[in-house]
Each structure stands twice: as C-alpha cells, then as structure tokens.
Design goal:
Elements (H helix, E strand, L loop, with lengths): L16 H6 L17 H9 L3 H13 L5 H13 L3 H14 L4 H13 L3 H12 L6 H14 L2 H14 L4 H13 L3 H14 L4 H14 L12 H17 L3 H15 L4 H12 L2
Helix pairs in contact: 2-3, 2-4, 3-4, 4-5, 5-6, 6-7, 6-8, 7-8, 8-9, 8-10, 9-10, 10-11, 10-12, 11-12, 12-13, 13-14, 13-15, 14-15
C-alpha cells in the first residue's frame, strides 16, 4: 500500500547538458527543483498499493512539516490496519469515532479490526454501523457474513455474502467465506464449489486450498493418500483434517481411522491428532 517519491533531476527541467554548457561562465547553474511534499492523497494511494514503509515515511515527512489533525490520524490507523496491527488500528479508529461516531469508513475498519481480535460484540455493533449506509462496501458486508456465521444466522450470512459478491464479483475472500459458511452447516458438497471459485480467482489463497482439501476429504470414501514428495508431517496433517471432517459428518469409524493413521504417519508425537482420537473414541 504505497506510492513512490522521485528525487528531482540533478539538472532543472530544461537543464540538459547542452544548455548547461551554453550558459556564460559567470551564470549560476539552474537549481534543482525541490521535491514536492507528499499529499494526503499520495499517502492514501501508498497504503492502497501496500507500500507501507513508504507510507509511514511520507506521514512522518508531513508531520515534520506541521501537518496535523484527524486526516493524518486516520492515515496512521490505516497503515496499522494494512500491516495487520489490529489492536493499534482499532484503538486509533476508536479515538476518531469519538468525534465522528457515524463515519461508516471508521466503523467498517474498526469493526473488522475488532473481528480479527475476536471481539465479536464490538465488531457486530461497528459493522452494523458500516452496513447501515447505502454505500456500504463489500468488505463491510463480508464481515457481516462472517459475524452471522458465528451466531448460526445462516439467512443473514447468505444475504451478507450475496451483497458482498454483488459489489465485488470474483473476490476470492468472499467465495472462500461462502464455502466456509456451508461447511459450518455441515453441507460439504455445497462448500466445495465455493472453495474452487476462490482458488480460481486467487490460486495463492492458502486458506481456500486447505478448505477445499478438507471438503474433499469429507466427501471422499477413502482416507487421503500420501502425495509424491509429501512429507510425513504434511500427510499427517491432511489425515487429521480428514478425521475432523468425518467427525463433523458423524462418521465416527472413519474419523478414528484417520486420526490413528495420522499418528502413525507423523513419525513423532502428534498432539492434535492424539487429542482428536481420544475425543472420537470417548464419543461412542
């Protein structure tokens, strides 16, 4: 999230080597044109471009020039948010909201930060403020869908994710969350195509890849086989996830088999699989 600052050329705008030589010996050389100070828009563009270090430098330069006020404070909060420093970002947004309690931008970002920090009560209130606006962003609706999933309000989740998708078609994050929502309901078959859509939009989205693997493991008759070149630990992790999926579907026998094989495949003590196996055996 960041914009580049270019140094002024050593020669002035018209100061080519030829014109410099043509000047009388006593005439001073044209001075370098000073670099224009960054503007608020420059910093915002830097943050949107995810050039965070540069954005922080630009903000520091502006503060040194005497620029102060809520606009600068918001940009500082935005750099924290973009850096996933959610506690710091939330605190700064909350300070700004004290003066502008109905600012939907602040509500949205403070709400997502609260959600990331696990404060669902505060997140719900703030995201409610953000989605009350007619111009609510896809991020606000996406967050509302995640919050609805946490309370099992599937109708609200479907409505929220649909609104987010309408505003930002093809966003991998939304498709992944829609798939996870179906997974939470136990509908693994409905979840699978959403994870596929997420990966088609962003092949590098590891969460979607892991979720797709989990959904397919739940739907498969057999346990996951070891892939060529796959480490024993990675295979054990996939077996454990297959066991979790089977347990959710109520297939205790398959779950126990998966957890047991995960322990055997890991080559060392795998606490998560061991705990899951113990829970599955005690659930009989």
């Amino acid at each position: 999230m960041i914009a580049a600052l270019l140094l002024a050329a050593a020669l002035g705008p018209a100061g080519t080597p030829e014109t410099a030589r043509a000047q009388p010996a006593s005439a001073p050389r044209p001075s370098a044109s000073p670099t224009a100070p960054p503007t608020l828009a420059d910093v915002a563009h830097a943050i949107d471009s995810r050039r965070i270090d540069q954005a922080r430098t630009m903000i520091a330069n502006m503060v040194a020039l005497g620029v102060r006020g809520p606009q600068i404070d918001r940009l500082v909060a935005d750099t924290d948010f973009a850096s996933a420093h959610f506690a710091e970002a939330r605190a700064r947004y909350q300070q700004l909201l004290a003066a502008s309690p109905n600012d939907t931008y602040l509500c949205e970002h403070a709400g997502i930060a609260a959600l990331q920090l696990g404060d669902t009560a505060a997140a719900s209130r703030l995201i409610g403020c953000a989605t009350a606006a007619s111009n609510a962003s896809w991020r606000a609706w996406n967050a509302r869908g995640v919050l609805a999933d946490k309370t099992g309000d599937w109708a609200a989740a479907d409505d929220s994710f649909a609104r987010a998708s309408a505003l930002a078609p093809g966003r991998a994050e939304i498709a992944n969350n829609r798939g996870w929502s179906q997974l939470l309901r136990g509908d693994w078959k409905a979840a699978e195509p959403f994870f596929e859509q997420a990966l088609a939009a962003d092949p590098g989205l590891s969460r979607a890849a892991n979720n797709l693997e989990l959904a397919r493991a739940a739907l498969a008759t057999d346990l996951p086989q070891r892939k060529v070149g796959e480490s024993a630990r990675d295979w054990a992790v996939r077996l454990n996830d297959a066991g979790v999926a089977s347990a959710i579907l109520g297939d205790r026998k398959k779950a126990v088999a998966a957890f047991t094989q995960a322990l055997e495949a890991s080559g060392s003590w795998y606490e998560r699989a061991a705990d899951n196996l113990d829970a599955a055996e005690r659930s009989e």
